[in-house]
Every structure is written in structure tokens, then in C-alpha cells.
Amino acid sequence: MKSLTFYLIRHRKTQWNEQGLLQGSQDSPLTKTGCEQAKLTGQTLSKIPFVAAYSSGLKRAIDTAKYILNGRNIPLFQHIGLNEQDFGKWEGKPVNGLKELEEYQLLSNFPLKYKALISQGETYDKFAQRVKQSIDHIIQIHQTGNILIVSHGNTLRLLLALFSGATWQNHREPKYLKMPTNSSISTVHILQEKESTTKFILGNINNTDHLK
């Protein structure tokens, strides 16, 4: 029987986060505040005996994972399936300006209707497929233990909703978690007797007590 605990962390704050710019598949430098956030997260998790750590393939997530691990002898793997949703032509643009666009409103609220015709980014069906495949891959590799996963806002929002029983089509409904905070910690317990009977039990979600 598999028994895993995921510690899901959103990457620390970046310059584009502070400037209100949409990041997606692009990267921007980490801020001083972001570095402090990551160190605090690492201190909070320093006694957790992780068997492995995963980050997305984007630098802001990789660097955050390294800050958290702080030289501990824990293997860190990059998994591009954990990357943030690709927003195409919108990346690097002010979010406040994009909010006026009908297609952006579909992105924010109606995943099934978002076709990415203007942004030329990643649709939710493709996004959800790769994210789910990455998590299934991690579950397949490990039998027991604690797993650190450092990823991104939209990615973690989708994952936590899916763990709660949502579908990618309805995961933006108000009853599900909104955007996780930078450097927040969420825990999910995974129990699996057979591949067809995987049970997800949500623990503490979007915890930011360590940042106060």
C-alpha cells in the first residue's frame, strides 16, 4: 500500500509578482522578500524527512526548492510537467490591463470556454493533462514518505482542486481554493491500495503562518 505526503509549495515572490505582470512560462528575478520567504519556509520544513524533492523546470521554482532544502542530502528533480500554465503572448504584460479582455476573463473564471485564441497560450485541457501526468508519475515512483513539490500559482490551484474532487472544467468555482500565496505550504496525503483506488486527503492548505 502506498502512503505518501506531498508538501506543495508555491515559489517565492519574484519581481514580476511585485510589478503585477503575468509570468506563466517566463521567469523573472527573485526579490529580496522572496528569498527571505523561501528561507522561512525551509526553516519550517527543516525537520521533515523528505525522501525526494521536485520542482518545475522554471528557475524561480528550482531556486525556491534549493533555498528550502538548504544543502540537505535530498535528491531534487526538475519536472517540466509541474511548470506554470503557458499564457503565450500575454506573458510579461500587466494583469490589470489584461483583466479588461473577454478572453482573459474566460481564463480566470471559465476554463472550459477558454480557447487561447488571442493569447495563443495553453488551454486548460492540455494544462490539466500534463499536470496530472506529472503527479501520477511521482506517485508511481515512490512507495512511502514525504515529498517536497515546488510549483506555481495556477498549477497548484488546479492540483489542490483536483485533489478535492474537482475537474479541470469546474476547478475555478468559488468553493475551491483561489490562488495560493507565494511560499505557502499545503499538505496532501495520498493512500493507494491499487492504482484504481487512490485516495487524496487534504491537510493544511495555503498555510502562511511561517511568513508572519
Automatic annotation (TrEMBL):
SMART domains reported in the protein's UniProt record: PGAM
Question: For binding substrate, which residues are annotated in this chain's numbering?
Answer: 10-17, 60
Q: Name one GO molecular function term.
A: fructose-2,6-bisphosphate 2-phosphatase activity
Q: Which PANTHER family match?
A: FRUCTOSE-2,6-BISPHOSPHATASE TIGAR
Report keywords, A-Z.
Hydrolase
Q: Quick one: a GO cellular component term? A: cytosol
GO process terms (BP): negative regulation of glycolytic process; regulation of pentose-phosphate shunt
Q: What is the lineage of its organism?
A: Bacteria, Pseudomonadati, Pseudomonadota, Gammaproteobacteria, Pasteurellales
Q: Which domain of life is it from?
A: Bacteria
Hydrolase keyword on record: yes
Q: Which residues carry out catalysis?
A: 11, 84
Q: What is this protein called?
A: Putative phosphoglycerate mutase
User: Coiled coil: which residue ranges?
Assistant: none
